[in-house]
Write a structure and sequence with these properties.
Alpha-D-Glucose-1,6-Bisphosphate, Chain A, domain 4; seven-stranded antiparallel sheet; 137 residues
Length: 137
Amino acid sequence: MAQVRVEEEIAGDAGAVWKLMSDFGGLKAWSPGMESCEVDGEGVGAVRTFSMPGGIVVKERLEALDHDGKTYSYSIVEAPLPATNYLATVTVHEAGPGRTKIVWTSEFEPDGAPEADLVGLFESIYKGGIQGVAGAI
């Protein structure tokens, strides 16, 4: 099983960062390159479908949500990626006055692509998302 971990600190209140990131259907507000995002259902079990340039469509399911702990987990249900059994977790921590640390991790099984390539891809996605959050706060 491959693993990815990205930790970055950004300016902004942890509560505001959590409010933005925990909105499972709100990816367009902070995720670069997002064309659309729709959610089917509410809370744990909800499925979001988002599209990106080039006709890329991804479906993800919310697997866990803890507002008190400022963490959620999601799995990929359908995506044009050479990975299976993907599960990611996002956690938001206070890092001092006006500072927030975001920790984004995942585990997955490579399926037809080198593990190092997929780890690099997911690291890039997480870092881009975190910078998108920093720009949206």
